[in-house]
Amino acid sequence: MMGRGTGDGGRGQTRWRWRLAQAACVAVVLVPAALIVVDLLRDALGANPIEEITHRTGDWTIRLLIGTLAVTPLRRLTGWNPVVRFRRTLGLLAFTYASLHFLTYAVLDQGLFLQGDVLGYLGEDIAKRPYITVGFTAFVLLVPLALTSTKGWIRRLGTRWTALHRLAYVAAALGVLHYLWLVKGDQVTPVWYGVALVLVLAPRVGWNRRGARAVASVPRGAVGPVVPAEFLSKAARSVETR
Amino acid sequence: MLILRPPRIHPSEITDEALFWNRRLFLGAAVGALAAAVPSALAASRLPAPRSRDDELTPYDDVTTYNNFYEFGLDKRDPSRNAHTLRPHPWTVRVEGEVHNPKVYDVDELARRYPAEERVYRLRCVEAWSMVIPWLGFELNRLLKDVEPTSHARYVAFQTLHDPDQMPGQRSGVLPWPYVEGLRLDEAMHPLTILVTGLYGKPLPNQNGAPLRLAVPWKYGFKSIKSIVRIRLTRDQPPTTWNLAAPREYGFYSNVNPDVDHPRWSQKRERRIGELLRRPTLMFNGYGDQVASLYAGMDLRRDY
Ligand code: HEM
């Protein structure tokens, strides 16, 4: 369903196909959110629906964050470059779930806008409960990334865009820490997410080192985060084809 | 004081109109907030606050499907799915230690000796949620008096069954097994402290701690140990499971106290299961008139 964009059908058709693929990706990833609404209406979220919603949105946030960071290694591993077009989409979906997760906590769980005097409780939670502090920091870090994910910002920020978007690594790591610190008793699931995160981040270290040595002799068209200009023009191109 | 003896309640009567409307309001606000976050949440805030007929019974289905009973899994829904492996009959409880008449009781014998009465208690979990449950049971002091504590007895230690075949969660190392709990003797003798044999007029479901559990309504729920096989009177303060697992987080006393926060949960407010908005948590879970005197002169911030 996803053409490689070889241009056989003309640029217009390729673009159209990519758009469809992106839309399908968005639709699939939003299914869990839709299921939350369905289950809510069926009263099928259990005795404590707010807790269930918090957990489900939190789970999808961490999965999508790690999924987003897996795109680049996947592309290096498979050599299938067009996959990078899904990175921004996945990143924005991760941010969507993070926002739902945060709003569930702030509005439904703590009663922001629903009940008086809630800001005090929120502030206290964020300041005093380490797992909330860490989760909140992760969420705050994602905000500038979402805001600067447009073509315009990629151009405007130039090389600084790449540097800025490395914050995604930090946000994901804080997300795992958040999970580790919130579980009572069972550390197994968050540890697995930690392992997954290390696995998707680790290859970057190798490339960067090799890349630093090879910088002088990069052949034209080589792909790599070490060559920000090259990388950016690629990124910009991938955005253009959307 | 919340010791009510309502007429026998059938589960079918439980989801009354008020609760139904609570759920409706909840759905409205929740869908609104999810769909368009702030604006519709603001709209929802104009709805009347969910009716608070203060301590309505928590529906039977919620009481029996939302449980912390790590012997059957860590998710709140696990115990209701997994606890069928527990065999609550036949069952014996050994009462021993600093007593003149140590004895092994069969639970059926206990039920005959101490006819059950209904007690409607609030249950406050340390995770900042709460329920209102119509327990069936008898005062622990009746059993303790019958075994005649010696003059050395100062504490009561309780122990849950330890049998990984019946309690598969005990194969995991999340907690040291068996689960143990303890009370000071005067707490154990207090008329609010009951041994529970049922709820909602029925025998105790496995996931709620069949066939015999404790209910100490002014303490966090984890003090109310489930599926008890041993009650031992002691001279020294006995170890308690959550205190062993995380001493800085869980003290021996663990009285409900809105002024002493748990590192993970603010204890100032709680969510009553079935309600949307949090309500303030009451000192000693609202049983202060009955129990505050037990702690006269103690610093409850230190002895949390
Ligand atoms: C990128 C940011 C975040 C990620 C990746 C994340 C991820 C998660 C995950 C995986 C869970 C556990 C789900 C489960 O147990 O199945 C969770 C739970 C939770 N998160 Fe987050 N979270 C983030 C941000 C936040 C923020 C900003 C807040 C609030 C300020 C928050 C509050 C909570 C709460 C209250 C829970 C439930 C804790 C409990 O049940 O005891 N999280 N989160």
Label the overall shape of chain B. Answer: globular
Q: Which kinds of small molecule does this entry bind, naming each only once?
A: protoporphyrin IX containing FE
Major sheet of chain B: size, sense and barrel closure?
7 strands, mixed
CATH architecture label of chain B: Alpha-Beta Complex
Terminal-residue CA separation of chain B: 23 Å
Shape of chain A: globular
Radius of gyration of chain B: 20 Å
The number of E-state strands of chain A comes to 0
CATH class category name of chain B: Alpha Beta
Structural class of the secondary structure composition of chain A? mainly alpha
Taken together, the total number of domains of chain A comes to 1
CATH superfamily of chain B: Oxidoreductase, molybdopterin-binding domain
Profile the largest sheet of chain A: none
**Tally of individual helices of chain A:** 10
Radius of gyration of chain A: 20 Å
Treating each run of at least 4 consecutive H or I residues as one helix, how many helices of chain B? 8
What do the pLDDT scores of chain B average to? 87
Question: What are the low-pLDDT stretches of chain A, counting only 5+ consecutive residues below 50?
Answer: 1-8, 215-242
Query: Order of helices and strands of chain B, N to C?
Result: HHHEEHEEHEEHEEEEHEEH
Strand content of chain B: 15-25%
| Percentage of β-strand residues of chain A | under 5%
